[in-house]
């Protein structure tokens, strides 16, 4: 049997969501210095927003699938808050530290989603899409971190 890809709309929305990451990672290398600084700031802020959004996905999954007095419901709700609790303080850090914290946040969310108990409540297409999106987002963070290192 062959793997079925994500439905068209989630795939297109996921790819569209990569545009600010990809644009930021490119602009920090090719634009004039003032635009590079703005691109870094925009990249960090967008990254924090999207990381928080990923936590919201798991809040929604808990609300829709878990019985409210179960351990799974409580664990998922508590863990759904972690991305925003990483993302918001990251905005208060220097850009290189922020980019690193946010990248680690994306990796942690992905590791969480890959756990058997969590993955069971997510569609298989979501898992494949998130793996692709996370890989690209992490590469973009690495590019921005490399540029920040070159600037110092």
TrEMBL record:
Superkingdom of origin: Bacteria
Keyword Thylakoid: no
TM region positions: 12-35, 42-65, 85-109, 129-150
Keyword tags: Membrane, Transmembrane, Transmembrane helix
InterPro entries from the UniProt entry: DUF3429
Pfam annotation, one family: DUF3429
PANTHER family the record matches: TRANSMEMBRANE PROTEIN 69
Descriptive protein name: DUF3429 domain-containing protein
Species per Swiss-Prot/TrEMBL record: Modicisalibacter ilicicola DSM 19980
